[in-house]
Design a protein that fits this description.
about 20% helix, five-stranded mixed barrel, Collagenase (Catalytic Domain), 28 strands
Amino acid sequence: MRGDIGDKVKKRWWIAMLLGSEATLLVWALEPGSSAAGAEPAGRITTEMITGIGDFWVLARDPPGGAPPLAEPFQRWVRLNGRTYRAHVYGRRSRQTSQRGIPLRGVAMGDTLALDSRVLRPLEPGEGLEPGTPITDLRAREQRLADAPAAVLAEMGGSIYRFGSRADLEGAEARLEAAEARPGLEPGAAQALLLKGRSPKRDRGPLSTLASDWTLGLKRVLIIRVDFSDLPGEPTGRDGTVYTAGYVQHVADTVIKPFFAASSYGMTPLSNTVTALYRMPQSASYYATNNASNQLHADAETAASRDYVLANYDRWLVLFSPLEGLPGSELSYGGLTSVGTRLVWLNGEFDFRSVVHELGHTFGLYHADLWQVSDGNPVSASGTEVDGGDVFDPMGYNFGNDPRTDFNPSFKWLLGWMSDAQVLTVTHSGTYRVQRFDTASASGVLALRLARDSWRDYWISIRRNFTNLAAMENGAYVIWGFGQDHHSDLLDLTTPGANVWDAALGVDHTLRDPVPRISVQPVAQGGDGPGQYLDIAIDLLLTITGQPTNQIVRLGQTTTFTVATDGEPAPTYCWQRQPAGNNTWSDVT
């Protein structure tokens, strides 16, 4: 399907898209019926609106141990209508996981695609359809009988659908987007129903977490070791470690497996299988210089399938010697994962840091970042995200290969490892007790959750594994969690912007945030071992949300003044008056 969009608008669309804007211009330019149609060309560019059912791939590219973060830690690719495009995204797709067989739409220029964030595109008034275009009618029986004029048409995946009303269409869009927020390659039930011509049913509620069979229960991990004609023999690490089958099995069973058992509180155990060494059909130089990671993984799968039924395994890890140092190599990552899928590449690395991090990506997690500030204010609006900068979380880069790191409570809640009952959502001022979460026997309330704005929540908890760090051993670990965005920001609360290792909020120290008007102060700690706890005082500060208006009143008349406030506890108040010619205020009785 080609859109009737003028070249000038498409060029503007591309400029905005590549700059990261998600302004109205982007949506407007995707509307075939918009006033963009017929715009005068501005230079010779070849663009095309494409739509259909295709694959959306999100690749997490993590640096080798000790190397600086890569310039582009996440790349997105689309396979649509027989072609592969480098995708630029905005909105919800910026944190979506890899998906296969989903509706996709965008404006292509060469091998690059600006991808629309929506699943369903409402047809605009006056937008014509080719004669005989099939329309799938999703209206309820009573709506069809009434043939109400409120019915609307929408395009998805190259097909046209009729909904009973704009509200029905918007409801379907919400459910489709929620289904795409889950990890796992296959389309969810909502997409499958709509693609079969049936209206997606309403869920019990919004899909706010990643929790599913993909993140819970036993996960069988297959570790495929490979070599090459020009790089023969057992895979080796950058430090010279030889990754024999025995060595890899030992690390997998004594380091990786116990970590996931403890971190998930027994909900997601691992079973690890390490293969013999398989020779790849192409040379190491071929894969490296052609940026052929996908082909390398596919070739490794083909080789392993001679001895294993791959479908019996939930995660496929391909381990090989470092390729980034080969002449002309285009492979710069240490670890690579297709986010939310079973596919992992380990380029010369097999240790706690690399394997736990990449497996975290397979569960659908993005990175644990740091909110870096330079003005001394830990919640400064001028701060910036440092990719992978949370040194206490394995979804940070953990260059120290520190096994004391653990997934933060926001991530554990997303994965279904931490229940709603273990996360206390704070809506009133008070003092709340939280137990440590970084132990296999954690119980009780493990985190406090407090809304900051429309897209971020405070997550307040305690880590006690870093016994050599006084701040973290005695204070509160505070992050911003981003819900379905699947990432987090560590707040540096002791010496903001200077030393991330003392990021915790200490006892009797106070965090004040003027945006939600809150204050957070740890006030006491206690307990031993797994039973350690921290008492935290939270004040939701008073805000006057509506001031009284001035009024002129004749002598003897009555009037009403109103003021609106927000905060906890509910404020007490009194009214005062100042008589004319008098500087003294007195209470109104």
